[in-house]
Design a protein that fits this description.
heterodimer; A: alpha+beta; five-stranded antiparallel beta sheet; 3 helices; B: 555 residues; Sulfite Reductase Hemoprotein, domain 1; Sulfite Reductase Hemoprotein, domain 2; 17% strand; DUF2849 (chain A)
C-alpha cells in the first residue's frame, strides 16, 4: 500500500523582501500561512510546485512544506516551518511583528 | 590601520557597480535565481529563513571609529537597528531587502568595507588575534600579514572556484587566541635564531568532521609566505574532492592523502611558484606594515585607575574580568562584552556601535577589534581613562563583567535565522546566561568557554568549547548534544560527546548539573573546569548527567 500523502503547502521567500510567502489557491503569494492552499493530493501538489517554479521573478526557492489541516488553515508539522511563519525567538521581528 | 590605495578603491567601486547591475537584472527578470545565486554569494548576500542576510567582512577584525559609525548607519537605514558580530570577525545584517543591497554596499565602500568573498568557495575573510599589536605576549603584529594575505586572496583568479570555502587565521603569539588550529591554514608568527618567520598549519577545521590542524612547515622564512600559501591552496585546488561536499574541505584532502604526500606535493608546487615571486610582495608587506605602526603611547600615572579599583567594587569586578595585559606600560586591553545576560551573543545596537566608536576615538587610539568570541575589543586604552570609559560603557549597557566566564557564550545564529540550522542556539545561550546570573555562580565557576552550534557545520565552534552544545533535529524535535573537554587554544582539543542529547527545555539544567559537579569535585578554586575535566575524565559528569544509566550499570 502506498504511504498516505502528508498534506503540503507551496512556500518560498519573496524575491525583493526575502520574507516567507505561501501560494494561495487563487495564485497569489500570501504572507499569512492560514491563507495558503493546503494540497492534499500528491499529483496536484507537484503541479502547484511547477507553477510556483515558473514565477522566478516573484519568489526564490519554492518548495513543498509538510502541513496538517487546522481550524484556521494549514498548521506546520515541524518546528522549522513554525519558526518560518513566526520569526526569530530572540527579537519580536519578522512575521510575528507584522501581524 | 590599512587605508585603501587608488587601486583598492577603484576595484571596489567597479565590483559594486557590477553587482548593482546584476541585482537590477535579477529584479527585472533577466536573471534566474540559479544564475543570480552565485553572483550574490560572491558579494556576501545570503537568503535565510526570514529574510536576506548580508555578511560584511571586517578584515582581521579591525575597525576604525568611522567604519563602526557607518556600520551603525547601515543598521539604522536599511536594517532593524542592530548588527550581529560573528565567529569569523564579520558583521551580519539579518533584514536587508534585495533592492537596497547596492546602496548598502556603496555606503560600506565609503569607509573601505565590503562583502566580497564572505561566501562561496573562495578564500574568506582572513581572521587574526583580536589582541594583535597590543598583547604583551606576541612576537609580532599579525595584521600586516593578514592584510597581505587578504590582498593576495581577494579576487585571486585561480582561487575563485575552490572545492570548498577556505579560511585563514593568523596569530603573532604562542598563546592562540585566533583558533588557528581550526582553520584550513593557520599561520603563526615565530622567531628562530633571531629571524622572523612563520609556523604554518594546514587542514584544521570543525564542522561535520572536526580535525586539528597539522604543522606542514615548522619554520617558513618570511619572504616565502605568499608562494607557500599559494602552493598549499593550489595543491588543494587540484587534489581536493569536488564529488562530495562533505569531503571537500582541505582537512579531508590532507587526511585522505596523508600529510606527507600533501606536503611533498605542496613543496613541489612551491618550487615552481617561488621564482615567480620576485620580492614585490615583500615590498608591499613593508608598505602595509607602515599602516600598522603602533600608536604613540603616553607615559602617564595610573592614579585614577588605582583609586577607582579601590573605591568601586563594580569597576573592580569589571576590571578583573574584562581587562588584559598590554605591552605598553600603563595601558590595558579592554574587552567590551556583547554578552549581557539574556541578550543575543554578538549583537550590538546601532546606538551601542556609536558609543563604541566614540570611546575608541576618545580613549582608544581609534582602534576597534571584533573578536571571534563575538565581543568588541578596544586594544589600546590608558589605565587612567578606564574609570571614565567604564562609566560610559555602563550607560550604554555594555559594561557586563563576564569575559571568559559561563555567560560569555559563543552562539551561532541557529534556526532563529540560518537556513542550514537544525535547531536554535541563541535562546539556549540566553537561558544559560540568565540561569547562572540568577544562581550568582559565574565568578565562582571561573574561566569557562561554552560554545553552541545550531547544526553540524559548527559555526559556533562547539567542538572546541570546554562545554560544547550541538543542536540537532531528532525526529522533528530540537535536541542538544553535549561535548566536554574541547579547547580552541594552542592546546587544541576536540571535545568528546558525553552521551545522549537533551531536549530544548532540559539543556540548561544539564549544563547546571555539569557545573555543580565541577564545583564539587575541583581540588581548589584555582582548578579550572577544563583542568578538572582533564584530571577526572568524563566519568563524574556522565554519572551526574545520566544517573539512571549509572544505576543500571551498577545493577
Amino acid at each position: 500500500m502506498p504511504r498516505p500523502f502528508t498534506p503540503k503547502v507551496v512556500t518560498a521567500n519573496a524575491l525583493l523582501e526575502g520574507d516567507v510567502v505561501y501560494l494561495t489557491a487563487d495564485d497569489r503569494w500570501t504572507r499569512d500561512l492560514s491563507e495558503a492552499e493546503l494540497l492534499t493530493d500528491e499529483a496536484h501538489a507537484e503541479l502547484r510546485l511547477i507553477d510556483a517554479n515558473a514565477r522566478q521573478h516573484e519568489v526564490v526557492g519554492p518548495y513543498l512544506a509538510d502541513m496538517a489541516p487546522g481550524e484556521a488553515g494549514p498548521e506546520p508539522t515541524h518546528f522549522r516551518e513554525d519558526f518560518r511563519r513566526t520569526g526569530p525567538s530572540n527579537y519580536f521581528h519578522g512575521k510575528q511583528a507584522e501581524a | 590601520m590599512y587605508r585603501y590605495n587608488d587601486f583598492d578603491a577603484a576595484f571596489l567601486a567597479e565590483r559594486n557597480a557590477q553587482f548593482r547591475q546584476q541585482v537590477a537584472r535579477r529584479i527585472d527578470g533577466s536573471l534566474t535565481e540559479d544564475e543570480f545565486k552565485p553572483l550574490r554569494l560572491m558579494n556576501g548576500l545570503y537568503l535565510q529563513l526570514h529574510a536576506y542576510m548580508l555578511r560584511v567582512a571586517i578584515p582581521y577584525g579591525t575597525l576604525g571609529s568611522a567604519q563602526m559609525r557607518q556600520l551603525a548607519h547601515v543598521a539604522d537605514k536599511w536594517d532593524k537597528g542592530y548588527g550581529h558580530f560573528t565567529t569569523r570577525q564579520n558583521i551580519q545584517y539579518n533584514w536587508p531587502k534585495l533592492p537596497d543591497i547596492p546602496d548598502i554596499l556603496d555606503a560600506l565602500a565609503e569607509v573601505q568595507l565590503h562583502a566580497i568573498q564572505t561566501s562561496g568557495n573562495t578564500i574568506r575573510n582572513v581572521t587574526a588575534d583580536h589582541f594583535a599589536g597590543a598583547s604583551a605576549d606576541e612576537v609580532g603584529d599579525p595584521r600586516p600579514v593578514a592584510e597581505l594575505l587578504r590582498q593576495w586572496s581577494t579576487d585571486h583568479p585561480e582561487f575563485q572556484f575552490l572545492p570548498r570555502k577556505f579560511k585563514f587565521a593568523v596569530t603573532g603569539a604562542e598563546h592562540d587566541r585566533a583558533v588557528i588550529r581550526a582553520h584550513d591554514i593557520g599561520v603563526q608568527l615565530v622567531e628562530k635564531d633571531g629571524k622572523r618567520g612563520y609556523r604554518v598549519l594546514v587542514g584544521g577545521g570543525l564542522g561535520r568532521t572536526p580535525v586539528i590542524g597539522k604543522v606542514i612547515r615548522d619554520f617558513l622564512p618570511e619572504e616565502d609566505l605568499l608562494p607557500y600559501s599559494e602552493a598549499i591552496v593550489s595543491t588543494y585546488n587540484v587534489l581536493g574532492r569536488r564529488d562530495n561536499k562533505y569531503k571537500a574541505r582541505i582537512k579531508i584532502t590532507v587526511n585522505e592523502n596523508g600529510l606527507d604526500t600533501f606536503r611533498e606535493l605542496t613543496e613541489a608546487r612551491f618550487a615552481e611558484l617561488k621564482p615567480l615571486f620576485t620580492g614585490v610582495d615583500q615590498e608591499m608587506l613593508d608598505g602595509i606594515r607602515a599602516h600598522f605602526a603602533p600608536p604613540a603611547f603616553r607615559n602617564a600615572p595610573t592614579t585614577e585607575y588605582d583609586a577607582a579599583r579601590e573605591a568601586d567594587p563594580v569597576f573592580r569586578a569589571w576590571a578583573d574580568t574584562n581587562l588584559s595585559d598590554h605591552k605598553a606600560p600603563g595601558y590595558a586591553i579592554v574587552s567590551i562584552s556583547l554578552k549581557k545576560h539574556g541578550q543575543t551573543p554578538g549583537d550590538a545596537t546601532s546606538e551601542q556601535m556609536r558609543v563604541i566608536a566614540d570611546l575608541a576615538e576618545q580613549y582608544g587610539h581609534d582602534d576597534i577589534r571584533i573578536s571571534h568570541e563575538q565581543n568588541v575589543i578596544l586594544p589600546h586604552v590608558h589605565k587612567s581613562d578606564l574609570p571614565a570609559l567604564h562609566a560610559a560603557l555602563k550607560e550604554a549597557d555594555l559594561a557586563t563583567a563576564n569575559i571568559g566566564l559561563v555567560s560569555d557564550i559563543i552562539a551561532c545564529p541557529g534556526m532563529d535565522y540560518c537556513a542550514l540550522a537544525t535547531a536554535r542556539s541563541i535562546p539556549v545561550a540566553q537561558q544559560i546566561a540568565t540561569r547562572f546570573d540568577e544562581l550568582k555562580l559565574e565568578h565562582d565557576i571561573g574561566p569557562l568557554k561554552i560554545k553552541i552550534s545550531g547544526c553540524i557545520n559548527a559555526c559556533g565552534h562547539h567542538h572546541v568549547g570546554h562545554i560544547g552544545i550541538l543542536g540537532l533535529d531528532r525526529a522533528g524535535v530540537e535536541n542538544y548534544q553535549i561535548t566536554l573537554g574541547g579547547d580552541g587554544s594552542e592546546d587544541a582539543t576536540i571535545g568528546q560527546r558525553v552521551g545522549p542529547g537533551f531536549a530544548y527545555d532540559e539543556i540548561t539544567g544539564a549544563i547546571e548539573t555539569i557545573l555543580t559537579t565541577y564545583l564539587d569535585l575541583r581540588e581548589s578554586e584555582d582548578e579550572t573546569f577544563l583542568e578538572a575535566y582533564r584530571r577526572t575524565g568524563p566519568g563524574p559528569f556522565k554519572a551526574a548527567l545520566y544517573p539512571e544509566k549509572e544505576k543500571a550499570n551498577a545493577a
